[in-house]
Specification:
Layout (H helix, E strand, L loop, with lengths): L10 E4 L9 E6 L3 E7 L4 E5 L16 H4 L4 E11 L2 E2 L1 H8 L6 H6 L2 E11 L8 H8 L8 E3 L6 H11 L3 E6 L9 E9 L2 E12 L3 E10 L2 E11 L3 H7 L16 E13 L1 E2 L5 E2 L2 E2 L2
Parallel strand pairs: 1-10, 7-8
Antiparallel strand pairs: 2-9, 3-4, 3-5, 5-6, 5-7, 9-10, 11-12, 11-14, 12-13, 14-17, 15-16
């Protein structure tokens, strides 16, 4: 199992509201790259949840080898970069796009591995309950790149704190849950801290079975593109857009071919965060 790099992390179902349940433990949901780390004295491999080998992208994480001694271990967790003491996915993406990782980049955009589970420790632990796996994980000390996820016991109060700080959300996990690779289960549940704002629709692009709405906002008198949101071809907003007169593109920062209309229709958009350039991440519109 330790050398099986085809394994994929356990997945989560989603709930709309936080909850309290004595059978669950709660953790902060960090906005990063989910990964399995294969670590021993002579082995260090990082595999993303989609099966991409990221080992060479984050060489500083090799310091985790110092923690495991003679053990062969598979950790489950999240690779995270921070900006102003908050996780920054856009900063992490910036680093992830680089072909060569220099010492200067490591210094400018350091990353950390937030460990929240251990699925192998010289033997397969996946059939063991989560609270037991957590006890085993606790034996590995934090260092300057390895941080164990803190456990909380009240989901509602944790979610209030997450909302206040502008974090991505929380995760609720059944204390007795076993670990099932690449399966989505109600034993693990995520609750996202979704942000909601109104944006203007300046146009749309027709896809095979959907349409991408082009969203914007006025900044200093200029129309700035902030992202796209997909809707199905029967969405009521398309009727309004198709009845609008077509005009030239007014975006100052977007040049793709599309059908452009007067930016007068407001839509309510749900999204996770805004990047450093103001773009919306995971923008959606109610059907």
């Amino acid at each position: 199992m330790f050398h099986n790099y085809q394994l994929r992390p356990m997945l989560l179902e989603e709930a709309l509201k936080p909850f309290d349940d004595k059978n669950f433990l709660y953790e902060i949901k960090f906005d990063g790259i989910r990964a399995l780390l294969y670590v021993s004295k002579n082995t260090f491999v990082i595999m993303s949840r989609n099966g991409v080998n990221l080992t060479n992208k984050y060489p500083e994480l090799k310091k985790i080898q110092e923690l495991v001694g003679n053990h062969e271990v598979i950790f489950d967790g999240e690779i995270v970069a921070f900006q102003n003491d908050l996780p920054s996915f856009s900063l992490l993406q910036k680093r992830n796009r680089l072909k060569n990782v220099s010492d200067a980049i490591i210094n400018d955009i350091p990353v950390f591995f937030i460990a929240f589970d251990i699925v192998y420790d010289n033997k397969d632990l996946t059939s063991w309950p989560l609270d037991t796996r957590k006890n085993i994980l606790d034996k590995y000390l934090d260092n300057d790149v390895f941080i164990k996820s803190r456990v909380y016991h009240e989901g509602i109060s944790l979610f209030k704190m997450v909302k206040k700080r502008g974090l991505e959300g929380i995760v609720a996990k059944n204390k007795k849950s076993v670990y099932t690779f690449c399966e989505r289960t109600s034993e693990w549940i995520k609750v996202k801290n979704i942000r909601v704002d109104n944006f203007l629709v300046h146009g749309y692009q027709e896809k095979t079975n959907t349409y991408s709405l082009l969203l914007g906002e006025f900044k200093q008198g200029k129309l700035k593109f902030v992202g796209k949101a997909s809707v199905n071809k029967h969405h009521e907003i398309l009727k309004k857009l198709k009845n609008e007169k077509q005009i030239k593109n007014k975006f100052v920062n977007f040049l793709e071919d599309a059908i452009y209309v007067k930016p007068s229709i407001l839509v309510r958009v749900h999204y996770l965060e805004r990047t450093s350039r103001g773009a919306l991440r995971h923008a959606t519109i109610d059907e």
